[in-house]
């Protein structure tokens, strides 16, 4: 869609920079400064103008992108709407709530789209924070603290006059306000507000409105938020555009409500009673571009349903700013017009499937939707058993949404307690993989094992329930709560021996064990089935034996043992591969090639291995206990390696690991 830029100041090149990768094209540029308009237009091979009416007459552009100074936004938008052009406006939509509402009404009456910056509620860090809210992690949200420290505009902007005229509310506070309104709906009233004229005496250019404003806002369906907007507090202060929300069950910190990028520490979560943990991106993200907010508006026009949701939200934000100013002047609590603003639901995270997956085979088979990285819950580390409750809680707080559990690990009741505790993600947001140990391959033992694990975890059904090992051992008793038993007893139950000290095997074939496992699925105790530590030949046996195909295969996989033949075999059949022990091979993390790739990408060798798996659609399940590793492993799932990098890592294959 052709668009007309009105305003060619500092922000215009930022919008123009993303045009080449978008569905939009620049058809003309308007600016009162002829040289500035001509320079931007020349970069894009389009005409330039100094008069808006002339440009509207001569340029075939159904969409106007209003990038003028703050006070000019409303009159330019009105002129464009009256010329039957759709409009996307920089913030604020207007400086007066009545004018902002009138613009929304004009767009509605003419059937035109109207959008307004900021578009950053859809930026990656903000979306990630929104997913934590959608997960129910905070519970009911009661309080919030939002900052908009715009800083001394005379220091960092070459044309600060427009900023100094309007103050920090309309330029800075709009970022946290737009995000909060997106999440929680409209502000109901301004409870109290205060404004200060604090400014350095040495500065000749001073704000003509208060330079520092504080207000307490009550949202109709959400928290009470203390908002600070300041030109005096420098933008390099500890809080720039930070937001902290506190709920009954946990707290959320977002480093920047106006941030365009996505850092691993930009979002942090702390459930009640626990410290904040970084919640990094767990899938590839791209920095948010200014034009990314314009594209969906254009798409709504092309679809025949011109959107005005951004305009309504922008009008409500203006009404909030007006109400803050009124309250600061001593009017007491001030009600705020919602201007038709409603909360946009946060983007839903990847969730488990609601129906059986894996019954179809072949290249078109449906596959489980899994997160890029899962979390291993085994207690056995470095030759001894360790308590994992704290590290599993840290993993949940960081954002892991696949937990690899097993009755062998003996800590299912601990996981169940964590999932039931305040601040835990909703059950529907977590993919739970359970595994029956090899002493329980007979039908009656499989059913009892699954029933016991479900009870320990406090769940109705597993997302996937698997055979932990393809071969069977003698049953010597139930394995519930192994972690509470002496180590000798644990090992006698799980690794039984005969009179000669050899493994006591049971005469249950893999095909029979799989048929027995299907009874779990038939009872609705598992939505899908899987098998672990299996060869390709063993997997073929399973595929031939049962009525339900496996949806998941879990095997040891790392660069020394890439199992690419098995991975490709599974991919062709819509079977997901989960990689256990991805970092455990001796000497692996000292490999020069991993260090070289890591240095090039700013990753540790461990993160390179995680990314190597994720880049091939394999889900690694590291079982780290250190918080820093828990976070960095999850963040590595957002990295994607090139084919060349993958080939360099594949070359590390060691035949000794294949035996």
Explained architecture:
There is one protein chain. This protein has 659 residues and is of the alpha/beta class. 36% of the residues lie in helices and 17% in strands. The chain has a nine-stranded mixed beta sheet. An eight-stranded parallel beta sheet has the order 16-19-20-21-22-23-24-25. The chain has a six-stranded parallel beta sheet with strand order 3-2-1-4-5-6, with helices on both faces. Helix 13 (412-420) packs parallel to helix 14 (443-457) and helix 19 (592-601) crosses helix 20. The termini are far apart. Residues 345-365 have low confidence and may be disordered.
Structural class: alpha/beta
> Span between N and C termini?
59 Å
Spatial arrangement of strands, main beta sheet: 14-13-12-11-7-10-9-8-15
Shape: elongated
Strand residue percentage: 15-25%
Helix content: 25-40%
What is the count of helical runs?
23
Average pLDDT metric: 92
Largest sheet: 9 strands, mixed
Let me know the number of strands: 25
- What low-confidence regions span 5 or more consecutive residues with pLDDT below 50? 345-365
- Alpha carbon gyration radius: 29 Å
């Amino acid at each position: 869609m052709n668009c007309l830029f009105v305003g060619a100041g500092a922000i215009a090149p930022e919008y123009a920079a993303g045009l080449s990768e978008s569905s939009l094209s620049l058809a003309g540029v308007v600016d009162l400064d002829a040289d500035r308009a001509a320079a931007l237009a020349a970069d894009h091979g389009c005409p330039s103008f100094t008069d808006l009416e002339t440009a509207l007459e001569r340029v075939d552009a159904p969409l106007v992108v209003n990038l003028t100074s703050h006070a000019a936004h409303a009159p330019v938008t009105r002129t464009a709407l009256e010329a039957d052009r759709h409009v996307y406006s920089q913030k604020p939509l207007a400086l007066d709530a009545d004018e902002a509402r009138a613009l929304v009404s004009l767009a509605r009456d003419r059937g035109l789209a109207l959008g307004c910056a900021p578009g950053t509620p859809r930026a990656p860090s903000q979306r990630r924070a929104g997913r934590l809210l959608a997960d129910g992690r905070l519970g009911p949200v009661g309080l919030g603290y939002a900052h908009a420290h715009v800083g001394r505009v005379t220091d960092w902007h070459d044309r600060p006059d427009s900023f100094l005229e309007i103050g920090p509310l309309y330029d800075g506070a709009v970022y946290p306000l737009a995000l909060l309104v997106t999440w929680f709906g409209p502000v109901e009233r301004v409870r109290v507000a205060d404004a200060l004229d604090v400014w350095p005496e040495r500065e000749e250019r001073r704000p003509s409105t208060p330079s520092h404003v504080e207000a307490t806002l009550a949202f109709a369906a959400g928290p009470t938020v203390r908002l600070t907007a300041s030109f005096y507090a420098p933008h390099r202060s500890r809080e720039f555009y930070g937001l902290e929300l506190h709920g009954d069950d946990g707290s959320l910190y977002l480093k920047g409500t106006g941030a365009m990028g996505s850092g691993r520490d930009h979002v942090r979560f702390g459930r009640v009673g626990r410290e904040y943990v970084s919640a990094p991106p767990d899938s590839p993200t791209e920095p948010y571009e200014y034009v990314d907010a314009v594209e969906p508006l254009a798409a709504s026009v092309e679809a025949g349903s011109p959107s005005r949701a951004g305009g309504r939200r922008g009008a409500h934000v203006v009404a909030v700013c007006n109400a803050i100013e009124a309250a600061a002047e001593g009017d007491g609590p001030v009600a705020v017009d919602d201007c038709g603003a409603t909360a946009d639901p946060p983007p839903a995270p990847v969730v488990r499937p609601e129906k059986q997956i894996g019954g179809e085979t072949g290249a078109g088979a449906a596959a489980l939707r899994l997160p890029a990285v899962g979390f291993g819950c085994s207690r056995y580390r470095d030759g001894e058993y360790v308590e994992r409750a704290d590290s599993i809680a840290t993993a949940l707080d960081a954002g892991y949404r696949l937990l690899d559990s097993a009755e062998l690990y003996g800590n299912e009741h601990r996981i169940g307690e964590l999932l039931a505790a305040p601040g835990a993600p909703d059950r529907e947001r977590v993919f739970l993989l359970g595994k029956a140990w090899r002493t329980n391959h007979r039908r009656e033992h499989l059913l009892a094992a699954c029933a016991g694990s479900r009870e320990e975890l406090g769940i109705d059904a597993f997302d996937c329930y698997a055979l932990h090992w393809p071969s069977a051992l003698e049953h010597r008793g139930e394995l519930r709560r192994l972690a509470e038993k002496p180590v000798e007893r644990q090992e006698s139950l799980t690794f039984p021996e005969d009179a000669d000290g050899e493994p006591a095997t049971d005469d249950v074939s893999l095909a029979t064990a799989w048929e027995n496992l299907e009874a779990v699925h038939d009872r609705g105790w598992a939505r899908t089935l899987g098998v672990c530590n299996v060869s390709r030949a063993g997997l073929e046996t399973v595929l031939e034996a049962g009525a339900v195909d496996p949806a998941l295969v879990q095997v040891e996989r790392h660069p020394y043992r890439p199992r690419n033949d098995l991975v490709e075999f599974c991919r062709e059949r819509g079977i997901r591969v989960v990689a256990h022990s991805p970092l455990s091979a001796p000497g692996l993390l000292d490999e020069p090639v991993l260090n070289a790739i890591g240095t090039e990408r700013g990753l540790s060798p461990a993160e390179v291995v995680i990314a190597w798996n994720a880049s091939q659609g394999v889900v690694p399940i590291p079982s780290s206990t250190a918080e820093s590793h828990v976070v960095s492993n999850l963040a590595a799932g957002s990295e994607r390696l090139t084919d060349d990098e993958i080939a360099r890592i594949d070359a590390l294959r060691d035949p000794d690991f294949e035996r």
